[in-house]
Design brief:
Radius of gyration: 44 Å
Structural class: alpha+beta
Shape: rod-shaped
Largest sheet: 3 strands, mixed
Distance between the termini: 126 Å
Helix content: 40-55%
Order of helices and strands: EEEHEEEEH
Oligomer: single chain
Number of helices: 2
Amino acid sequence: MALTGIEIGTPAAGARSGVALSLGSIPVPDVSDESREDAEKTLKKFGFKPVAEDVVVRDGAGTVYAQDPPHSTLRPTGSTVWIFVEVAPEEQPGLEERLTDLKAAIDRLAADIRDMNKNVHDHVNWVKDGVNDKLDRITGKLEELAKSGGTGPSKG
């Protein structure tokens, strides 16, 4: 990493040293794919002020995916460097319980539908049996009528 603007001068009032050293502008280090903690340590080590912002993504790993300014940009020491950290969404309290309740409700609905289907099936069979009985009676009467030559039931 190349350093620019090295200055030696008079120390600030109250400083312990008799010499002040200013590094001026230095390249911003690349902290992409580092954890938030490691990225902040690295930036502080080079004299920058890290500011982290979480960005929620489904499989957030807690690592830096972007920074501003980009790495290798010359900035004065003490400058702010924004780091954007991928984080997983927070689990909503009670979500597991709500999902369990929803599954139970779906299971109850499925059981109700099975019962209704059975009731409809039973009703259809009851109607079919009644129709078949009437058809059998009608068929029997028609057969009697045919045997009698069309004159009606035999008297005898």
